[in-house]
Batch of 3 targets.
Target 1
Amino acid sequence: MSNIYESAANTLGLFNSPCLAKVELRVTCKGISDRDALSKPDPCVLIKMQSHGQWLEVDRTEVIRSSISPTFSKVFTVDFYFEEVQRLRYELYDISSNHNGIKEADFLGAMECTLGQIVSQRKLTKPLLKQGSTVSKSFIMVTAEELTGNDDYVELSFSARKLDDKDFFSKSDPFLEIFRMNDDDTLQLVHRTETVMNNLNPVWKTFKTSLNSLCSGDHDRPLKCTVWDWDSNGKHDYIGEYQATFKEMRGAMDGRQVQWECINPKYQIKKKNYKNSGIVILNQCKMHSFLDYIMGGCQIQFTVAIDFTASNGDPHNSCSLHYIHPYQPNEYLKALVAVGEICQDYDSDKMFPAFGFGAQIPPDFKCYCVCVFFQHVYGCAGIQGVVEAYQTCLPKLQLYGPTNIAPIIQKVASSASQEMHTKEAMQYFILLILTDGVITDMADTREAIVQASHLPMSIIIVGVGSADFSDMQMLDGDDGILRSPKGEPCLRDIVQFVPFRNFKHGSPAELAKTVLAEVPNQVVDYYNNKGIKPKNTPAPFFIRVC
């Protein structure tokens, strides 16, 4: 192992990274004041974490229309470090029905706390503070639940037929809520479907939830399912309910439908010939984990692309982002090793294509590993091989520009498209792009990502240095579904962008955990959407267990 490679790995704690507890956080608000006398607020909560003195958005809830006391179905999963003070900030906004943007939304209040406070109390309730730290009459409640270790996800698809009509001039606008019954007999909202307007036979969108959230890993735990008729004033009409278990839902795994009668208890008592208020149908129940695909032989094909544009600075200057110190790895190497060390365990041949972009090279220079404009493509032997190739090529390149990444995405997508035609879970592609600046071919990049979302492929972009990466967030899909310049939406969310500076002084291997956290779900999502099951026979290779 080379000194620079070993230094980068040790700096990131890859050989002795600690195990972490994962915690699920759920949010409820009470008594939100009406800013508009003519309508109720449309609340949405942003969760932020403090890093190096700055608040960074982690995620946000769904928007609930016309509600002063919303219970959000969105679940936030975070890593809990006992030895660290992890500061959280919850911001409540009223988002107009005309748009979903936070910039134009009304700020209703915020609450700050630590993750340790939530975990120790399990249910933390605090008032929201308005601008100027004025205490409002609104409250926010955050509930914490530790993941039990069962991180398998289940994909469920519900519909209904012949629901009761609760509207005079039109048909009901039904939505379904699923609650888990806890050991203390309280109910925990697991999922709320979208509303299907003017339809007594709704087909709700397929959704995915963890078994931990659905039933705490207990297949016999009771689930209360309620059907409502949505009203714009927030006072939804009760249609009926039924009780189920995940054990019953598993009956839909073999292609059969599972059905429940939707019952209104009041009608059951008052009406002599009452049968039900409709039938709720589970059309599909899929449950394949990431490990099912990996142990079934699916290989992770890892590709690296490195930014060699002039904005990085002269590599011979110690201020350059590409400066090669004999013992201290630069940010490019730290990010490369952090992510690559994880991925290489799931690639049997461990030969990684490595690309470069933005540089000028002499006509007679044969770049054997890190290649510009894909003129010479060979695999590097492991992450150490990529590091050595980077160090060898760097002195011979003239850093130039621009920062165009669409050609690289298209190159990897070309390989992924060949895999798609096999109709088997054999290879999934991960492209790691390391760059110091804002992308200059944004339109082409958006188009390339939208096309790649149909393929077995994920893209990780790490921003190196101190540039303003705010425009890069749109590629991550955090502000809504990414669309091509022509308006075509991404089929799946396949991009994860993070600035390296957020992890410069963070916990060991925190960067790798953050950027790779979504990959297992992205792998499962792709193959589930294609109806491709894992192979039953385990592949003959070993997985390192930390």
Target 2
Amino acid sequence: MREYWTSLASLMGAVAFLQGVVHAVFPAELRAAVARLLGRATRAFSPYCYFDVTETEGMGTNEIYDAVQLYLSSSAAPAAGARLTLSRPHNASSFTFGLAASDRVLDAFRGAAVTWEHVVAPRQAQGFSWRPLPEEKRRFTLRIRRGDRGVLLPAYLDHILAAAADIRRRSQDRLLYTNARGGAMDARGLPWDPVPFKHPSTFDTLAMDPERKAAIMADLRDFADGSAFYERTGRAWKRGYLLYGPPGTGKSSMIAAMANHLGYDVYDLELTEVGSNAELRKLLMKTTSKSIIVIEDIDCSVDLTNRATAAAAAQPPKPRASIDGGAIDQDAAAAPAGAAARSITLSGLLNFTDGLWSCCGSERIFVFTTNHIEKLDPALLRSGRMDMHIFMSYCTFPALKILLRNYLDDDSSASSSSAAAAATMAGLETWIDAAEITPADVSEVLIKNRRNGREQAMEQLLEVLKARAEKRPPSAAAGNATGGGDNEEEEEEEEEKRALESPKEGGGEDGQDEETEAKKQLSE
């Protein structure tokens, strides 16, 4: 054993002597050139390709480095014995994991295996700089087989960027934006004011028939996953939803459920704060992708009512002579002082939702809500602007069961365990359609009686339903009690039909005759 250590010491001394001779005889430039040649020769016969993703690119950050770090923290599998770093970014709702220095992680894409290594090296001392660089140089090294290069690049990097963007969006708190200053910019050059979006509504708690909810959720998922479809068909990646129905039927809750389901931010556009079509376009340009743009109560925001109905209903006033014999424009005299300054028009709103300016972003949803669909201009309702019309009806029995589960922790099987509970549930099913009560009113009754127990709260709700049904006309109550959902669907179809066909009823020769008669009166 002693001879082994003596031989090893002699060998190390010889190596040190040769290293000193090499450093003394051969200059550093020559040694570096030889090292590069040996490295190239080794890589030429290696079955792998190596790609470095540095943390910085010049004086700026490398977007791919941040994306790789996010992607590997959730999608890839760490190698045996790898050490992970735990962090939680600002304004994030979940933790993220990252690779420590010199650790590796394994991944696969389209059947090809890849290896990522996180390399951290100290940076050489730098002189004075207005923007000092970090003390360490960080990079990810990607190793793939040469035969898989055509399969992985650039599709694998595109996949990483898309996955990282989705992770970043879902880990951060969603935001609710409003245009409190109209179209004016703040100090950061943004016209929107954000606040955290904490609405808890989901499709599981939304009071709506399960079949209709499933159809809406499927439509939303098809939209979110339809990038290739919209690109192939040449359509802008956007979709419009019109929510209409009586007040208190859950239109705002539906919007919150859509945002929580997709993980999108919400832009609440207040049209009364917008002064012109140019400001409207400016607001649209400053919205982000993967967002929902909402205009609530659009029939009450600005004058966007049905043009044909308004023209048929309005009679031209008889001109009143002034002192000098001229005619006074009564409309101009009656208009408020600020009406001329506000110039947002129906055409501007139509271009906002379906014009060229609506294509300045991607993956955006437009949602309009109204209590009176018949008041809206048919141009707003056509496909391409409002693609899906969702009628938010009065509370039905399937929706009532969801509300009972939400507020009373009630299940249909549990409610039928006793004869009294079963009778109460049967009465609720009988009277719910005849009462024409909104989910908001049902929720208020259940909230007030939730401390009294499940059965007593249901009995109180049954009394409220009976009282509301008795106040309604007997014919209407009987029709709802017998027809149920069929009458509701017929009413929905008739309401949409009247809204879409109204321009044909109000236009034509009658409008031209009235305009001609008004001109004759002015000339006289």
Target 3
Amino acid sequence: MATKISNAAMFGLSPENMSSHEHLPLELDSSFLNTSTVIALCVFFALLCACIIIGHLLEENRWANESITALLLGLCAGGVVLLVKKGESSHLLKFSEDLFFLYLLPPIIFNAGFQVKKKRFFKNFSTILLFGIFGTVISFCIISLGVFWIFRKIGVKSLSLKDHLAIGAIMSATDSVCTLQVLSQDETPFLYSIVFGEGVVNDATSIVLFNSVQTLDFHNIDGLTVLKLIGTFLYLLFTSTALGIAVGLLSAFIIKTLYFGRHSTDREFALMILMAYLSYLLAELLNLSGILTVFFCGIVMSHYTWHNVTESSRITTKHAFATMSFIAETFIFLYVGMDGLDIDKWRESKASAGTSAAVSSTLFALVLVGRAAFVFPIANILNCVQKRESSKIHFKQQFIMWWAGLMRGAVTIALSYNQFASYTRKSSESALMITSTIIVVLFSTIVCGSVTKPLIEAVLLRHRKPMVSDFTDNVSLEDLRVLLPGRASSLRLLISHPTTTVHYFWRKFDDRFMRPMFGGRGFVPFVPSTPTGAADESSSA
């Protein structure tokens, strides 16, 4: 029985749910499987198949997408389970932080780094960091102060200072999946790279802020507390990034040196998956940011490791990583939808409909204000710094960036459970915070997500010709030296054309030192017996 409980816990099943099914005639003759686990997995896999089919049928629909479809199916499935069990429980699976952070989130973040268009991403890297880090901190402060001031007037008075700060971090975590499903990397590459990059950095920043709040000693707060927070964040930022880069380079070096494709393409593909996942686990083991680590590991693997494998493995890895990410995203929205009808939490909250609506409305209003408080000011400050009109962020783009950050998702719910669902704090107001968070996530995803596609089409006029700022500046350093009078120094070029200059020197360093050691485009070893070897031979001819 202990083995059954441990296996069920991995899937978020509680011992209480298990015992309610022990009498079913479908009991399996096995020491490690039980009926509840099989039923739960069958339901979720069936729902995943339904999401894929319905998503395909609604591909051209203006008001629906796969995220909303999965969420609504999860809600419907939860309602059916609630009716079948006569109001006892609405879920087959309980929301498990381990399931989310260890199994579902890593493939999504890794694929984001693996598929990202690196040139555009790093061209806007400073802007992404401003919105993703500085903007998230502003949102965190506004939401925390707003909650501290308004909740007491509503009647929610038992929350501590740590709870108010935690709510600020929880509600600062955005979910821009709905917006990214509508935006196109080809039609609006600048806007896509900003929204995409900010979403990844925002999740990492929110989790770091949340963990920092948990470590603070609120009985001894002094002037150094803020400096400690900043120091901790910078440490996590640089060490997590360095770890991801190191693991990515190690995978590239191993595959380039040993070249597994000579004997088995399965081994090189398996090594890429395992080392990518290993980077995330190492970061979590070292109390770093696993999101940043696996994201930059994906970027490095796509730049070096992917070019060192055989042609068949390149096709396999590209589609396999995208498929795993897609399934994990769909599973998360199903998970959140079914968890939205957690009848036990609603009963524990003991709050009236008016109180629940007031708390949820307050949280969402603070999300709106906190988002606007940094998107528009930072964008306009950047516009003042930019010299070229084509490089400025226009108001329509600012509005889409603001809208893209209004949706909240599974990270928000996971952090909320972490803060308020522990056995040591079984209180009505803790349950109220969880149910209010669920309401904000459902409302923002379904309502805001459903109007995202028509809104973007109306605001951005999707079929227009892309603006000049959407393209990458392809002017070479040699062209700049000719255009500038006299012998232009590297420092002058760095000041006048920073993006092009940094990119030029990075390419020189990459071609001279990095690619000969770690492989990459143009440095794949020639093996005549493999498809890659034949391709290299034909391309060099």
